Description:
Blueprint: H1 17-32, H2 36-48, E1 68-74, H3 85-94, H4 99-104, H5 106-118, E2 124-130, H6 142-159, H7 167-179, H8 183-203, H9 212-236, H10 238-247, H11 254-268, H12 270-288, H13 295-308, H14 311-337, H15 340-360, H16 367-378, H17 383-396, H18 400-412, H19 416-436, H20 444-461, H21 467-481, H22 487-500, H23 509-525, H24 529-546, H25 552-566, H26 568-583, H27 588-596
Antiparallel strand pairs: 1-2
Helix pairs in contact: 1-2, 1-5, 2-3, 6-7, 6-8, 7-10, 8-10, 8-11, 9-12, 9-13, 12-14, 13-14, 14-16, 15-16, 15-18, 17-18, 17-19, 19-21, 20-21, 22-23, 22-24, 23-25, 24-26, 24-27, 25-26
Family: Belongs to the cullin family.
Protein name: Cullin-4-like
GO molecular function: ubiquitin protein ligase binding
Amino acid sequence: MSQPTSTNPNKRSSPCSSTSTTAAATTRDAAAGSSGAAIFPAMKKAKSQPVACSLDSNKNGQQSITPHVHFADTPSPSPMIEDDPSDVLEGSLSSGHGAAAVGGHEGGTIANLSRKKATLPQPAKRLVIKLNKAKPTLPTNFEENTWAKLKSAIRAIFLKRPDSCDLERLYQAVNDLCLHKMGGSLYQRIEKECEAHISAVLQSLVGQSEDLVVFLSLVEKCWQDFCDQMLMIRGIALYLDRTYVKQTPNVRSLWDMGLQLFCEHLSLASEVEHKTVFGLLKMIESERLGESVDRSLLNHLLKMFTALGIYTESFEKPFLKRTTEFYAAEGVKYMQQSDVPDYLKHVEIRLQEEHERCLIYLDPSTRKLLVATVETQLLERYISAILDKGFTTLMDGKRIDDLQRMYLLFSRVNALESLKQALSLYIRGTGHGIVMDEEKEKDMVSSLLEFKANLDRIWEESFFKNEAFGNTIKDAFEHLINLRQNRPAELIAKFVDEKLRAGNKGTSEEELEGTLDKVLVLFRFIQGKDVFEAFYKKDLAKRLLLGKSASIDAEKSMITKLKTECGSQFTNKLEGMFKVCNIVKNDCVVYLSFLIM
């Protein structure tokens, strides 16, 4: 027996299902005769069933739902659509309404299935149901109960005690209050708790230990505890900071609010503030006197003043005043007891110490004012005294390091002009003694060369080749070397003659060239260069005439140097001597004798 063709019960229904069922029933009735009576009841039942794709929820046998209904075109099957009537028919056949009927109607069923396959698929309507949620209501006393938990936690933080509520629940409690527009009230309550605690703690410091270091340690601990506690409270109420505080003008963050309260109550506890400042000043003064102090304690307390915004008014002004008094007294004492080199070293050390204090515990903004105070009291007030008392000694002793220290320190207080004037006076004074001493004029050029060499070394190493100082040296030398009009020019010519004579053959060429270069420096300062030329020409003729020249190359080198300094006209006659000697060597003596006459 052939089995009836079964249909998929999951196939979606279409509006044409009813018509297809009727056509199939008519075909089966004509083919099967009396067997059709057995199928009809089923056919009629199928026709009488409601179409599953109806959008009326009452017709689909569903309970009435009042919320919003939304249709979405999706391919997913709808649970509200019933089976196709043809499926009902096939179910009746397969359940035993007659074997003949099955065989007789097989062709009609196949035709119906082929028609269904030819139908284009239609997108199903998906029913989306959104239920209206009832607006939640807050529990009775929600704000008070939530704040009670937070209040207990805040007090536990201040008292350094454990709390039964974990941080996550506390954080969520703050979120809940903020989400229900209770942030303002929460902020005020936290502020009130913080203020009560800060006031009590600062008042507890009144009348504490007379030992300043112990008292400062108590203040430091109070401040450190406050910072730790405020950070913990801020962590719990972070959502409050990020919502209510940011959205509300003129409302400080919880951290800034805490600092403001601490500052206000520190001012109210004036004894605590004044005692703290006094203790800080005493510790710094003790350190200046050479005692060892707790620099970390100073650092923490001064950072407290900076964080509270009272560093300048409460600490810096009295600190600079005490610094002025301290170094004013020290300057007088050390100027009386020390020589200039030691005093300059002391000033240098003091400046370095104050710089270190700024790096270690003072606020960086204090550095400029502090250093200026030390410079004024130890340097600027004593510029003239330092120069009068020790400059000549340092110059005579060629104290390169001490002169360098003086130059650097004077440059800090814009006193280089005074140093330059002192240098000029020293050169003129010392040089006057060399040039005007007729008893030692034989050594005048050698002494001037040595003096100039020392000045050049000081200028390079101590004064860092300062151009203004170099010009001062030149001007002073030009003045002193012309004090005796023509005598220095004559002596310089004689000095060159001595160096170029054969008696100096033991001197190396390099040493001779160096000496001639130094002499040429003195030659530049001579105003009566014609006097030098006359004496030099006479001495050169004698050296050539008598064959006393140590080196013809050295002679020519000196003439070249003079030519570079004064031009070819100055050396024409000098160069002519060599040319004539080369051309007429036999008549050289006669010619040179003629030039000498």
